[in-house]
Amino acid sequence: MPERLPGPPQRILIVSDAWKPQVNGVVRTLETVANELRAGGDTVEVVGPDRFRSIAMPGYPEIRLAIAPKRRLAKIIDDFGPCAIHVSTEGPLGWAARSLCLRLGFGFTTSFHTMFPEYLHARTGIPRSWSWAVMRSFHAAGQGVFVATRSLGRTLEGHGFRNLVAWSRGVDLERFKPGGADPYGDLPRPIFLYAGRVAVEKNIAAFLELDLPGTKVVVGDGPQRAALEKQFPEAVFTGYRDNGVLAASYAHADVFVFPSRTDTFGLVLLEALATGTPVAAYPVTGPIDVIADVPVGALDEDLRAACLRALGADRAACRRHAETFSWAACAARFRAALVPVR
């Protein structure tokens, strides 16, 4: 069992290829956890691509990849003098941080957020076994791999990962709650909502092609938006929403539809439930962990059937279930699993 980090105050460095101004679950998780740790007395620094020369990720212009970051990252690490290092992603910054930690003899932890082997296979045909071997090698160098759900942990164990650490998620219950001005106006009911990145790996077309009553609404933006708008002109695409409008979009929807089969958690599930909106999804990693057997939605390989069943869920029960997920507990678990650099 690796030695654990002493209590605060400590200096904690998080290295992540996913960071602001990106808008996604990884960024929201890291930002919220960092703020929770700071409130507890620790000094936390998050190093993202914004500090380096970078290029756009092919097909995802909003995602920047750091170019040759190792030398600058080494200086940042030296200047900060961390007590613990967490490497959050397997991109250029993650690999540079891993290499530097190994060279310096530093202990470190990692986290598994994204099913890259599945995405790469779907987009390029690269054999999954090749990508899984690379990912396994990346994470094996650390002293713990943080995973968001039990089902993800079982999947990774099946691919040979070891030293897995359970690290669930939370939701901002003040920001995401029932109420707010109805953003849907006179759109025909019921409202079936998807919110999140509009990208091929989110499987949004599987939702939009369903024969459902009422209106399908897509909140968010991304590289697939234009193609989906053209393919599904009857759906309503709002673009990115925030500053209370996002929460109201959840709260006034009748069902939140989560068509992804490859997310490792899905913070949007908790955000929707916190506003009292039930969830319809496939029975896969993420939904099966968040929903489980609690009657706050429906999971089914027939997504249309799940959408229609979810209409009958108890909205008050949805809110109560979301209240069991705390960011304070998430941050405490993260901190408890960190290891000292020496």
UniProtKB/TrEMBL annotation:
PANTHER family: SULFOQUINOVOSYL TRANSFERASE SQD2. InterPro entries: Glyco_trans_4-like_N (IPR028098), Glycosyltransferase_grp1 (IPR050194). The keyword Nucleotide-binding does not apply. Pfam families: Glyco_trans_1_4, Glyco_transf_4. It comes from Humitalea rosea. Residues 23-175 form the Glycosyltransferase subfamily 4-like N-terminal domain. GO terms for molecular function: glycosyltransferase activity. This is Glycosyltransferase involved in cell wall biosynthesis. The keyword Transferase applies. Keywords: Transferase.
